[in-house]
Amino acid sequence: MARPQLSQVEVDRFREASSAAALELVNEEGVASLTLRRLAKRLGCSYAKPYSYYRDKEHLIDAVRGRAFDLLTAFMSEAAEAGDLTVETYLRFAFENPEAFRVMFELRQDFVSDETRAAQARAWKVCAQPFHDAVASGELVGDPELIAHVVWAALHGLASLALANQLHLGKSLEEVAAGLGAVVDGFRPGATKGDPQWPS
What we know:
- This protein has about 200 residues and is an all-alpha fold.
- The chain has one domain: Tetracycline Repressor, domain 2.
- It contains nine helices and no strands.
- α1 (about 10-30) packs across α2 (about 35-45).
- The radius of gyration is 20 Å and the shape is elongated.
- The model has no long low-confidence stretch (mean pLDDT about 85).
């Protein structure tokens, strides 16, 4: 007998549940533990079922990555709505979701679905919005997208160093995070612009 065709609602429902379960597995045990068989066991379904939705582990990791970006969007949006979107918000997300953070940014991405690209765009919009607002109000001067990228690069580097336990050269996480304000100050009205150079 032919297998009944699943409705789009049923497909979407399973993908939603399976991506959430896969993200839980990654956060609990790391991405190396994530397999389609482990996912099936977590969901309580047949081992064959996830293969109907994910071609291979790479596609499953892509779903986890998209789910993690949506989690970042919700995390940052909640802070923004409370008027508490700061440097510490992004760091807190990284520290509370270290394995998801690594999947989002450290794993090679040979395959990225349209859904995951959209999730990345949603997360970026929330993270970059304060810089658009600051430029619009005159608090900062320049291309808001460039400012957001520069600050993100510095902030993300700090988060990655902290997660790798590499902040052991004399300055604490808190001290370096406070120093990130100097990055933003470089885009304030009247700040001196120029090509960055190592001090001589």
